[in-house]
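Worked example 3 (structure in, sequence out).
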């Protein structure tokens, strides 16, 4: 729950494709297959290879972590949306506040047991449906004052039509998470509307400023203390509040096994670096052992938001957060041009988010 890499859970898909990229991928794959098939009969024209190469470049080449198609989609959203957009999909959602038992996070043995209990709850959640779709959204909020306080919530969302009786399934899942500590049902406060925005921050109607980053990379040696590293450690004099959220999409057993099989096949077919091949083989062996033991793969999205009372303060807090992340070898993508929608991901309202809504 506090670590994105607990050792035996492997993210199945780190980042989903946008609708634009899905269409471009299908068109590019279809055109490439047609050209290869025609090449067996007669050589295709040179421009055909150029067209396929241009399509591949559109999908994969860009100055940054996004493809050109992603940047185009972000720009279109930035132009179309002038207020806080609706990211949620229809379905059943329930939110609780979680208070782990006293000393759980401070004691390494209790913390490991907590992570194992949360992993079992995710595996149980994944197997409540034939297809992946149930989402578990965990948020942590640290408020900085004379002393730092923090609160955390767990939200479960079941999309409409995935399960016939979602309320019964959520009641069953609630029993799994209740074993981790004190679980109290709550109704989240409404998401504040965006009053003003810039490329790197959004001003909310309650007077706060927010800047949100997606966590795109993290080391394997976090040791389960990601939340204390990013939220509770005082390595600077910043007075900004911080919020961390992780969106888990656990895959059922069958889908986890198929995903692991295709991951191994892809890594073997397309990786030529011998060292990387060995690393993938070791990782694949660890994943195989975990799946044999009954674990499941989990699709993970993680976000970090800094809150402040002025643009200057939130910009400084964003810089401080980047320094803390760099010290712990954590990569942040500050989602340029999407701050009007990104801060929602670190609130309980980010639980029913559609895949790819925030690129």
């Amino acid at each position: 729950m506090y670590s994105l890499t607990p050792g035996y859970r492997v993210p199945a898909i780190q980042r989903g494709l946008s609708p634009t990229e899905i269409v471009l991928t299908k068109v590019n794959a279809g055109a490439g297959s047609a050209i290869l098939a025609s090449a067996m009969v007669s050589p295709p024209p040179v421009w055909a290879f150029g067209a396929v190469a241009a399509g591949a470049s559109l999908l994969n080449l860009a100055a940054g972590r996004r493809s050109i198609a992603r940047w185009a989609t972000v720009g279109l959203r930035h132009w179309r949306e002038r207020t806080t957009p609706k990211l949620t999909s229809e379905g059943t959602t329930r939110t609780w506040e979680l208070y782990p038992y006293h000393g759980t996070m401070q004691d390494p043995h209790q913390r490991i047991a907590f992570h194992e209990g949360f992993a079992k709850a995710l595996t149980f959640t994944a197997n409540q449906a034939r297809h992946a779709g149930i989402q578990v959204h965990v948020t942590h909020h640290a408020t900085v004052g004379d002393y730092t306080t923090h609160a955390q919530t767990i939200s479960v969302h079941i999309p409409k039509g995935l399960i016939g009786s979602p309320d019964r399934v959520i009641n069953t899942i609630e029993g799994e998470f209740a074993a981790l500590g004190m679980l109290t049902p709550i109704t989240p406060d409404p998401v504040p509307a965006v009053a003003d925005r810039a490329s790197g921050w959004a001003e909310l109607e309650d007077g706060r400023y927010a800047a949100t980053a997606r966590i795109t990379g993290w080391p394997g040696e976090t040791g389960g203390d990601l939340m204390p590293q990013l939220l509770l450690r005082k390595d600077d004099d910043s007075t900004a509040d911080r919020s961390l959220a992780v969106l888990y999409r656990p895959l059922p057993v069958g889908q986890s096994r198929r995903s692991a099989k295709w991951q191994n096949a892809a890594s073997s077919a397309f990786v030529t670096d011998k060292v990387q091949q060995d690393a993938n083989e070791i990782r694949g062996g660890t994943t195989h052992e975990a799946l044999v033991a009954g674990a499941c793969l989990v699709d993970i999205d993680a976000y970090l938001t800094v809150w402040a009372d002025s643009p200057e303060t939130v910009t400084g807090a964003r810089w401080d957060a980047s320094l803390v992340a760099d010290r712990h070898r954590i990569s942040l993508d500050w989602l340029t041009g999407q701050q009007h929608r990104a801060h929602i991901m670190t609130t309980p309202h980010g639980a029913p988010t559609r895949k790819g809504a925030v690129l």
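Notes: Residues 19-41 form the longest helix (23 residues). Residues 140 and 152 are 4 Å apart (CA to CA).
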